[in-house]
Write the structure tokens for this entry.
Amino acid sequence: MSGAKPDPLASRVLAVFASPGTLFESFRQRAPWVGPLVISTIVVMLAMATMPQEVFLAQAESAVDRRGDPVTITSEPADIATYGRLMAVLGVAVANPTAAFAVAGILTLVFSLLGGGPATYRQFLAATTHSLLIVSLGTLIGIVMQLAGLPGSSIALLLLEPLLGPGSTVAAILQNLNFFLLWMILVLGLAVSKLDDRRSWPVAASVIFGLYLVFALATSSVTG
């Protein structure tokens, strides 16, 4: 990988939404990842800090201890909301970078180590951190919708809800499958196709979507 200077951060952020293919092709020469990761993390942290108080109060109403027994909370609503926001913000500060490193590692394992592709971990990390900007935008829009009193259910769940049983595993998976996550999956598939000429965009995106479903099913079985 040459020492070519990467495009300015602002240009790369815009390219994620306007011309991701060109952006990912540039990662063959230089793969910057810190800037977009910082931006996406800060955006989601700010979104968590502005969530409506009702969100945290609803979580407190259904609180349980480690054994699953209901817990009675006597704190003031304002204190509950403040604590909930703080925990959410700190959680994002840890979870967002962790997710970026983990996704890049999985892509490297599947498409490079097992698939024999030429892309490096750093290249996949750059693609992942830039793609996370899409989900960060979706999180911000979701918070704005909540503040405006609009429904926050995922598009997939809204469309298929009449066909699903209450509390079903499929419903639990679709709850987190929103437009922006699907967009990110498609963009990551495009990144794979640009970093590895042997992979087509549809195939790469399908593999990534399949990996997401496996992860969602595993998570649902553990938490359910």
Notes: Residues 153-164 have pLDDT under 50 and may be disordered. Residues 77-114 form the longest helix (38 residues).
